[in-house]
Amino acid sequence: MQRQKKTDIVDFAAAFHRKYPRVWEKNKQRWDKIFPEVKTSVEVEAHIIRPGNVSAPGGMPREDYRRWISFTRQALD
Fold first, then answer.
1. Where are the domains of the chain?
2. DSSP characters for 8-65?
3. Residue 52: alpha-carbon gap to chain centroid
4. Which helix H or strand E contains 70, and what residues bound it?
5. What is the pLDDT along the chain (77 residues), one digit of tens a residue?
C-alpha cells in the first residue's frame, strides 16, 4: 500500500513529527515524495482473551459474516 498507492494509512507522518520535530519541519512539504521510499517493518503481538467469542467486524453485512464464519469452521475441521 505504501509504495503502490503512496498512502500513509498508518499515519507515520504524525509519529515522525512527534519523534523528530526539527527534521519534520524541514521535510514536511516533501513527505509525499519521501514516504513511499521509507523502509518500514510491522510486527504484531496479539493476545486472544476469549477464544471463540467472535462478533461481526464493524461495517460487515451480517450475511457476509455468516458465510465467513461457516467457511472458517469448515477450514478448521
1. 1-40
2. -TT-HHHHHHHH-HHHHHHHGGGHHHHGGGS----------SSTT---PPTT--HHHH
3. 23
4. helix 62-76
5. 556 666 787 888 999 899 999 999 999 999 888 888 888 888 888 877 767 766 666 777 878 878 878 877 877 76
